[in-house]
Amino acid sequence: MKNLIILFMLFVLQLLCTNCFAQPAQRTMSLQEVVELAQEQSAAARQAQTSRENSYWLWRNYKSQYLPQLSMSANLPDFSRTITPVTQPDGTIDFRPVANNYSELSLNLEQVIGATGGRVFVTSLMQRFDDFDRDQKRYNGNPAIIGIEQPLFAFNKLAWDKRIEPLRYQESQRQFLEEKEKIAVKATELYFDLLLAQTNRTIATKNLANNDTLYHIASEKYKLGRLSKNDLLQLRLAVLNADLAQAQATLDEQTATLALKTFVGLKDSLLLQLLTPEQVPATTVKAGFALAEARKNRKESTNFRRRLLEAESKVAKAKGDNGLNASLFATFGLTNSGGNFTDIYTRPGNQQSARIGFSMPILDWGRQRSDIKVTELNRQLVQYTVEQEEATFEQEVLTQVNQYNTLKSRIATTAEADAIAQERYDITKSTFVIGRISITDLNIALSEKDQARRAYIISLSEFWKAYYNLRQLTLFDFERNEALRAEATNKN
To answer: Of 1.10.260.40, 1.20.1600.10, 1.10.3720.10, 3.30.160.20, which CATH number belongs to 2-18+29-64+159-315+370-483?
Structure first.
């Protein structure tokens, strides 16, 4: 009896000292810290930010085409030295050497008219001609020319772009927010992969220590004839299996750590110790509210409208390109020429031009009708596709809300089961030490304890993944009760 008491005290002492050994340097992180770190510095976050900036500059490029455009063009110089055939007064051809230079400089100001698809422009032009063989120079120029070019009855791309491009830009901004939430979902998945691996390693380490101690106690009982050899061998086998389990759990933890660090962008050599995120949001999400926020915030609603408008614009283009096409071109300006540069601006004369041209199909063997019909059918196909995608989108949001609420309520159950299983194992282990239950009962309690702990971690994992998935689907923060917003784009 005295020997059993001593062994029991040694067993308790070993349990207390299991975690007393010095640990390597480590970094403790919570789920929120890992998610924020991933959204700030991961490769996926940098890709999302780059795509967002690219969309911003495409938007700036689009807007710039509706602003006045000032440009300069020139040929300075355009020199030529050659032998040219020249017709003589008697009709014969004589080849004469020619050396001249022709220079031209123009300044152009242009403004498009979005409502009509035309453009107005102001041009100032100066030309100089040098004849080196005869030592002559001449100037010609247009101090100012004002003109307009206006398509008539044609497809107005500028007007359609004013309706489509703002939607495309808005869609890209919402896409950025969705990409950030996708990063959060992936980071959460890797976080719990590592947390579960750490849990398994902790379980395996404790089980190895416990089984080793129980084996030594059993060995003493066997020597005293109070335990069968079969039970002793079973305990020895448990020690060996626990040792293998610990080695595998350590390897799994190392693999999961590398995966999480690689994704998040951590380059240090510190060990990660993850905290169990047991505090879950108290909010219960209502399906109707979540769906309304998803329709308002997600890129899908903008995407659907943009695609329908693009389909409409293709129909309008088919009709505009295959019917009567006409264009108006008119200019009014000043012009002059002379032997000196100043002569161009001395009493210049008027210059006007006007032109209206048109084209229309007379016999095209049904090509115009078929082009229009194809675009109309494509528009109808887009409408059907959008309707189906809208229904699928709504179903996805509602399913995710139900999953979130269900998983949230499951956590309390798995937490209680974990606590009960741990307490039951402690009682069973103590009872086994004093010899009142069999090793089979001890193994059952051990297995149930480990399963309950893993089930609790897995339930937390599924909940938090559902939480971030719901944020991604709605772009709404249900804890703060506000829509997600992105920081300002870098405009350098």
So the answer is: 1.20.1600.10
